[in-house]
Design a protein that fits this description.
Layout: H1 18-23, E1 27-28, H2 39-54, E2 58-65, H3 72-92, E3 100-106, H4 117-123, E4 125-132
Parallel strand pairs: 2-3
Antiparallel strand pairs: 1-4, 2-4
Helix pairs in contact: 2-3
Length: 137
């Protein structure tokens, strides 16, 4: 977002804290997958949607991440598909699409370092950051 724009800069988004951290939980994916199938993760999406509809001044970045095993280009594309699948699910729940900013980091920001199935599973994820536009009523 440009200075003075209604669209926030990526630097203005922060990790959820306190009550919002209970809502904006990390969503994990199977290898090479971007669809949300786990009931727990579907519930997380519904909770996020409810929170955003009750708080129309909130914007979110939806950050897609991958494990280390594929090429940079493949992982960036997969991270994009993961972030976009969350965005689509939120829009289906009637969240304002102008308040959702998907971004892919591919394998560049691992949650856990290591080359084990356990560390790979923790790195195949979508995380959220939020921005509250205090000027919006």
């Amino acid at each position: 977002g440009a200075i003075g724009s209604a669209v926030p800069s990526i630097n203005q988004f922060t990790k959820p804290t306190s009550n919002s951290a209970k809502v904006f939980k990390t969503i994990y994916f199977d290898t090479n997958k971007h669809n949300i199938k786990n009931e727990k993760h579907l519930n997380t999406v519904a909770q996020i949607a409810s929170y955003m509809k009750k708080n129309p001044h909130v914007y979110i970045s939806v950050e897609g991440h991958c494990d280390e095993r594929a090429s940079e280009a493949y992982n960036l594309a997969l991270g994009t598909r993961r972030a976009e699948s969350i965005r689509v699910a939120l829009v289906k729940h009637k969240v304002n699409p102008d308040h959702i900013f998907p971004i892919s980091y591919g394998k560049e920001k691992p949650a856990v370092f290591g080359s084990t199935p356990e560390s790979w599973a923790k790195n195949r994820r979508v995380e959220f950051k939020i921005y509250e536009n205090k000027g919006t009523k």
